Amino acid sequence: MARSGDSIDVRVQRSKAAVLAQTYELLSAGGIGGVSIDEVSRRSGVSKTTIYRHWPSRAALLVEACSTIGSAPPVPDTGSFGGDLAALTEELAEQLRSARWAAVLPSIVDAAEREPELAGLHADLHARLMAPFGVVTERARARGELAADRRQDDVSAAVAGPLFYRRWYSREPLDSAFVRRVVEDALVRLR
Amino acid sequence: MARSGDSIDVRVQRSKAAVLAQTYELLSAGGIGGVSIDEVSRRSGVSKTTIYRHWPSRAALLVEACSTIGSAPPVPDTGSFGGDLAALTEELAEQLRSARWAAVLPSIVDAAEREPELAGLHADLHARLMAPFGVVTERARARGELAADRRQDDVSAAVAGPLFYRRWYSREPLDSAFVRRVVEDALVRLR
Amino acid sequence: MARSGDSIDVRVQRSKAAVLAQTYELLSAGGIGGVSIDEVSRRSGVSKTTIYRHWPSRAALLVEACSTIGSAPPVPDTGSFGGDLAALTEELAEQLRSARWAAVLPSIVDAAEREPELAGLHADLHARLMAPFGVVTERARARGELAADRRQDDVSAAVAGPLFYRRWYSREPLDSAFVRRVVEDALVRLR
Amino acid sequence: MARSGDSIDVRVQRSKAAVLAQTYELLSAGGIGGVSIDEVSRRSGVSKTTIYRHWPSRAALLVEACSTIGSAPPVPDTGSFGGDLAALTEELAEQLRSARWAAVLPSIVDAAEREPELAGLHADLHARLMAPFGVVTERARARGELAADRRQDDVSAAVAGPLFYRRWYSREPLDSAFVRRVVEDALVRLR
DNA sequence: CAGTAAACGAGACGGTACGTCCCGTCTTATG
DNA sequence: CATAAGACGGGACGTACCGTCTCGTTTACTG
């Protein structure tokens, strides 16, 4: 063995970075179905051989390429559950309007529906995306602003549910009036 | 000329029926991505040539094959907005748990995100699926059970949003306790 | 079936012809090892898919591509064994000097040595190449110009052996003096 | 400097020996086409880097690996040209039947046909193989058993030609009857 | 009920992607 | 400084589908 335990060959780093970047690019443009190893290879200048050296399958590559997306925005701390929830929801709405992953998520959901390998990807991504709601929820429960049986998932469903619905199902603009109402409704319900 | 204006060749009818049936089958099993003309041809016994003769594109075939799914269940009429909404939501939850289209919708959402031809399909399907909420909402507004500015979409978002979220995003079981709570929460706020 | 028994699709004919031509081209230039399906496809403009539709393997393609080479030149009939043999040997020497297959034969011999599929090819080619010696030999035996136990192979070995040796093993020019002497030597002994 | 002028690093000697041995092994088994640097490296335990350090190309390695094969058998001295030739031919036939290089020669011939670097290898090998015929021929000419214009190459062609032909072209067994006849024929012709 | 035009199946075709294999070169770290 | 380990780009392999296309053959309507 010519390599000490944890240092990583710079060539490997360079190759992996280039591949992941282009994979993410293709993913953003065409969803999961739009990512082909051949095309990634062509655009990144990294040979297919090398790609398969680092990732055993297309799914594995996708998983890693997605691992950076939806990284948690800073959790707001306004002092009240209402303020925190409003800030978080505005942020989520903004991302749904503009973030690249917003166009990709449906294809991940679809893939999770039938490819077990990618179901894990979906779970990770979802957890990362929703973690701030957990923080805010726990904080509010500690302050007694929420009923004892309300958990992160109730809050997420009450807020993200309508937003997602609007973004992908009724496909109407996520205007701020709607977002504001969703927050108000959620506060009324969850109180 | 061998054909009068509107009568349709029985062969055409037979071919189209067989193709649509198999398309729907494949659609249910593998989502939009799982439908390939080759496979439809193989299973239906109708040649590819003939399929492309009747539908100009894969998208067109999908649109027609989807036109039958999500057909509106009978709209309940219990006399109160609460009763109607509960019945409707239970029905929706049941379909999300078991109906074939539930596994297909994410792929349609994804397709709508990038193929304009299929965006129309998504819109149709969504309209059909949500129509009962419109009926119930209008009825409730007429009875004064709802604020004047509440429309179908607010109701849909408040109820279907959390359900969809649970079905496809947090991917937890849609147990009846959750469904009941969603209805109650919605009523609290929309009243 | 849309095609009657023996007629052949013109497209098939065109494709096969183009592929065989380019295969032969590559074969001449680089021997058996110089033929790759990818390159044949590239040069002939016929897709790899189509090539594999018509030939199950690289070996099968090579076999067919070689089937036209070494086609028997007209068998001379000078009236005497000596005259026939001289003409035949001159012709063989000329081909060894210039014919494209002369540069290819060693690679076929080599392939025959280890790939059974190609051993058949070698046998066919060899039979075709040496057939004229058989004709001439039989004719001479009928006329009593040859001992009763002399067969085609003795004649071939006595004449082609030295020629081949010179062409591929000592690698000296096949000048006409050498050819003449080979014929004379053969006649001395075989008479 | 750690090393004096002409002594050779023991590591170098060990590496080269291991590489040459394995190269010869592969050569015997699969001909020239069967030798790959990767495989040599794998089997010999010597890294590819090291191999390419010692030999500039695959051809150079092959040349050196072949330099030991076909080493001249002891030249017989029976007292007569006939006896010598018979002994030499029997020996050659025996090698063609069993020696490892017999399966390799066609691939060398083929390589010589198109790679100049390997043409030299072929020439060396051929010279080594045929040298005994030269010795015997000169001896016979000195004794007056051969016409003055007969040289080694005439003898080689007359004897090795038919043998090679039989071994690689007609691909029939090199039985001793055939070998005996070849010798007799050669003696008749060359006398 | 015969003729004809349409519908039809078979399948050839050029593409593109797949995942694997092996090549020869090049880089890095070790001894 | 020779070496082992192995990353790298290149390219061929044979397979699977894709959607387009060109055929020759039914087959159902129509005059």
Describe this structure in words.
Four copies of one chain form a homotetramer. Chain A is mainly α and 191 residues long. Chain A folds into two domains: 10-66, Arc Repressor Mutant, subunit A (Orthogonal Bundle), CATH 1.10.10; 81-190, Tetracycline Repressor, domain 2, CATH 1.10.357.10. In chain A, 73% of the residues lie in helices and 0% in strands. Chain A contains nine helices and no strands. In chain A, α8 packs antiparallel against α9 (176-190). Chains in contact: A-B, C-D. The structure holds a DNA duplex (31 and 31 nucleotides).
What is the assigned CATH homologous superfamily of the largest domain in chain A?
Answer: Tetracycline Repressor, domain 2
Average pLDDT rating of chain A: 90
Level of helix content of chain A? over 70%
- Please give the CATH class of the largest domain in chain A: Mainly Alpha
CATH-defined architecture of the largest domain in chain A: Orthogonal Bundle
Distance between the termini of chain A: 61 Å
Q: What are the low-pLDDT stretches of chain A, counting only 5+ consecutive residues below 50?
A: 1-5
Domain count of chain A: the total is: 2
Number of strands of chain A: 0
Q: Largest interface, and how many residues on either side? A: A-B, 39 and 40 residues
Radius of gyration of chain A: 20 Å
CATH level 3 topology of the largest domain in chain A: Tetracycline Repressor, domain 2
DSSP strand content of chain A: under 5%
Tally of helical segments of chain A: 9
- Class computed from helices, strands and strand pairing of chain A: mainly alpha
For the biggest sheet of chain A, the summary is: none
Shape of chain A: elongated
What string, H for helix and E for strand, traces the elements of chain A in order? HHHHHHHHH
Oligomer: homotetramer
